[in-house]
Specification:
Elements lengths: L1 H13 L14 E13 L7 E5 L5 E3 L16 E4 L3 E10 L19 E13 L2 E11 L5 E12 L4 E12 L1 H8 L6 H4 L9 E14 L4 E12 L1 H4 L2 H6 L3 E16 L1
Antiparallel strand pairs: 1-2, 1-3, 1-12, 4-5, 5-6, 6-7, 7-8, 8-9, 9-10, 10-11, 11-12
Length: about 260
C-alpha cells in the first residue's frame, strides 16, 4: 500500500502530457501537468488486466499546437525544433513483476522495478500526419535496447474535440524478451513451462486511437484505446501461448492543464 501511495503521489505531481495549446507566443516554453490511468495487461503477454498510473513528462517550446501528442508517447520533453520536426528525450517506467502476484508467473522469478531512457525524433510529413521514432535502453529491470515506430493522423472534429490514430511497431533486443518471456533451465521444474530462450526482433505490432476534449484552451481530457499483438519470438513464448494471449489491449484516461512558462 505504501508503494502504491508513493506511485500515486509521484504521478500526481510529476505526470504530464505533451498536448499543449498555442499560447500565442512562438518562442514560449509550455508545460502541461496532469494525471492519468491506464488499464493494461497485468504482465507482458497476460490475458488479465490491471489499472496503473500513467506518468508522462513533456516540455515544449514554440507553436505547440502544431505538435501532436499520442496517449502512448514516452515520458520526455522536446528540446530541439525545426519547421516540421522536433527531437528530445524519451523515457518509460517499467513496473515491478513479482511471481507471487499471479499464479501464472510461478517459478519464473521476480523482475525489479526499472526504467528506460533514450531519445525521440518526429517528422511531420504533412500538417496532419506525424512519423515518430523512439530509441531507449533499459536500466535495472533489463539491459536491452527497444525502439518504437509510430505513424499518426490527427485533426479536429470540432472547436473542442480532436482525434489521433495510427499504427505502431515495437522492436527489442534479446535481453528484453528473455527478461519478461524467457524460461531458463533452472525455472523449468518450478514453472511447469518448457525452457525458452527468445531472440530479439519485432516485439509487437498494433494500432492506437484517441480523442481529446478541450474544456478550456488550457484544460484537456484525453481517452485512448490501443491494441497490440505480440509477434516473433515474443508471440511464440510459452508464457504467452500457454498462460496468456498474444492480443494485448490497453485503455487510458488522462486530464491535463497547460502552463505558459514564457520565454
Amino acid at each position: 500500500m505504501r508503494r502504491l501511495l508513493g506511485i500515486g503521489f509521484i504521478s500526481l505531481f510529476a505526470t504530464t502530457s505533451l498536448l499543449a495549446q498555442d499560447s500565442g507566443a512562438s518562442n514560449n516554453w509550455n508545460l502541461t501537468l496532469g494525471i492519468g490511468a491506464r488499464v493494461t495487461p497485468q504482465f507482458m503477454g497476460s490475458s488479465e488486466y490491471s489499472i496503473r498510473p500513467r506518468p508522462v513528462f513533456g516540455l515544449s517550446r514554440g507553436l505547440t499546437s502544431r505538435w501532436h501528442s499520442a496517449a502512448d508517447d514516452a515520458i520526455g520533453p522536446g528540446l530541439i525544433f525545426g519547421e516540421n520536426w522536433r527531437a528530445g528525450l524519451s523515457g518509460a517506467i517499467l513496473w515491478e513483476r513479482r511471481e507471487s502476484s499471479d499464479r501464472r508467473l510461478r517459478g519464473l522469478g521476480n523482475v525489479p522495478f526499472g526504467f528506460e531512457a533514450g531519445a525521440f525524433a518526429e517528422y511531420y510529413v504533412l500538417p496532419w500526419l506525424r512519423a515518430r521514432a523512439d530509441l531507449r535502453r533499459g536500466f535495472l529491470a533489463h539491459d536491452a535496447v527497444r525502439g518504437e515506430l509510430k505513424l499518426d493522423a490527427f485533426g479536429s472534429l470540432t472547436d473542442k474535440l480532436s482525434f489521433g490514430l495510427g499504427p505502431r511497431v515495437v522492436l527489442a533486443t534479446a535481453d528484453f524478451n528473455r527478461t519478461y518471456l524467457g524460461v531458463t533451465a533452472a525455472q523449468v521444474a518450478a514453472s511447469g513451462l518448457p525452457a525458452y530462450r527468445p531472440k530479439g526482433g519485432v516485439e509487437s505490432i498494433g494500432f492506437l486511437t484517441q480523442a481529446t476534449y478541450a474544456w478550456t484552451p488550457r484544460l484537456r481530457t484525453t481517452v485512448s484505446a490501443e491494441y497490440r499483438q505480440l509477434v516473433g519470438d515474443a508471440g511464440r513464448a510459452p508464457l504467452v501461448r500457454q498462460r496468456g494471449s498474444r492480443d494485448q489491449f490497453s485503455f487510458g484516461l488522462a486530464t491535463s492543464y497547460t502552463f505558459d512558462l514564457g520565454r
